[in-house]
Design goal:
The protein is an alpha+beta fold. The protein has a single domain, classed as Beta Barrel (Elongation Factor Tu (Ef-tu), domain 3). The chain is built from 3 helices and 6 strands. A hairpin with a 2-residue loop joins strand 1 and strand 2. It is globular. The chain starts with 26 loop residues before the first helix and ends with a helix. 25% of the residues are buried. The N terminus is likely disordered.
Length: 144
């Protein structure tokens, strides 16, 4: 993984080594993996480190809540994208709290099985990358 233009926090799972592109997978899964790699800048760009505040199984899925740094709050939106440990996910809820911004994710069984998410623990740290489109919107509105 390249560190150009971004930070890599040692000791955290980056996720990329845990996402396998199995030749037996259907083409759609491979395309999604490729798009995630492109969105992450061909190797990832960590925008901040979050803390897992909740990670528990709910039915067949897993509920993940992460406290992100306040500096990332403006980039987080309901139904927006967020990357946690190299895995692109959809945000289910966002709450601004005194110590940062908490976002919540529903992790489906497949994602849990093919990523490092089985190793997440409440209180643990995760790498967080904001949505690339949010960067473009910020730049376009700042220049207007």
């Amino acid at each position: 993984m390249r560190a150009e233009g971004g930070r890599i926090h040692r000791g955290l799972f980056l996720g990329a080594g845990h996402v396998a592109s199995d030749p037996d997978e259907d083409e759609g899964n491979l395309v999604l993996l490729h798009l995630q790699q492109l969105a992450a800048g061909d190797g990832g760009h960590v925008d901040g480190v979050g803390r897992v505040t909740r990670f528990e199984q709910v039915g067949e899925s897993w509920h993940l809540a992460v406290l992100a740094p306040t500096s990332l709050a403006k980039y987080l939106a309901y139904k927006g994208s967020i990357t946690v440990n190299g895995v692109s996910l959809t945000v289910n809820a966002v709450d601004d709290v005194a110590t940062g911004t908490r976002f919540q994710i529903n992790v489906i069984p497949h994602t849990y099985q093919v990523t490092n998410f089985s190793e997440l623990k409440q209180g643990g740290r995760v790498n967080v990358e904001i949505d690339t489109i949010a960067r473009y919107v910020e730049r376009m509105t700042a220049r207007a």
